[in-house]
Amino acid sequence: MKTLVLIAALLAGLxxxxxxxxxxxxxxxxENDYRALFTSHAGRVQQPAxxxxxxxxxxxxxIYEDTASxxxxxxxxxxxxxxxxxxxxxxxxxxxxxxAGLCPxxxxxxxxAQLDAMTRAMARFVAANAAPPLPVRAVEPRLxxxxxxxxxxxxxxCPAPVSGVQDNRARLQAMLRPGGIGALKRxxxxxxxxxxQPCD
Length: 200
Hints:
- Residues 1-25 form the signal peptide.
- Keywords: Signal.
- The chain has helices spanning 2-18, 34-40, 86-102, 109-129, 136-153, 165-175, 178-188; strands at residues 46-49, 52-57, 61-67, 73-79.
- It is an alpha+beta fold.
- The protein has 2 domains: 2-79, no CATH class; 86-188, no CATH class.
- The chain has a 4-stranded antiparallel beta sheet.
């Protein structure tokens, strides 16, 4: 496994220089302290190349630390569990919650309640498995704050004909079908660090 991690780290370093796509940040208010993880798990940290350190957490979730020439540290984390990146799922559920709130005719009452339950379940999972974990009492206020702040930034006119509204409706409905619900259940079944990558 260590050999695979080192190979993955080297490939990730090469790809960082070749790909221009931005690394998505953790959901605001539910961030992981990656620097602290490298400190608290120092004995498990590997250094496959100068300026790069790698830490494998249960899942596995692999965290990369790249140090720039000015000493600035950049972190990215990838979920290799096969159950999906919990942070990415959480981010998508927040977007869905915001859009459903701005366009209430997209979902009926039953589907809206189901989406709310899924979002809250993922929020609790992310809070419990974040580094550091969030207190249970902080989950609901932070979730409400994230939804409120994101809703203030999104501009959606409802109903259609605005471009994208029908696509949003299809995405919302897909998340609430058995396949989407099953994916969420699989994601919640394995405690692991909630990270944003891979995020399609």
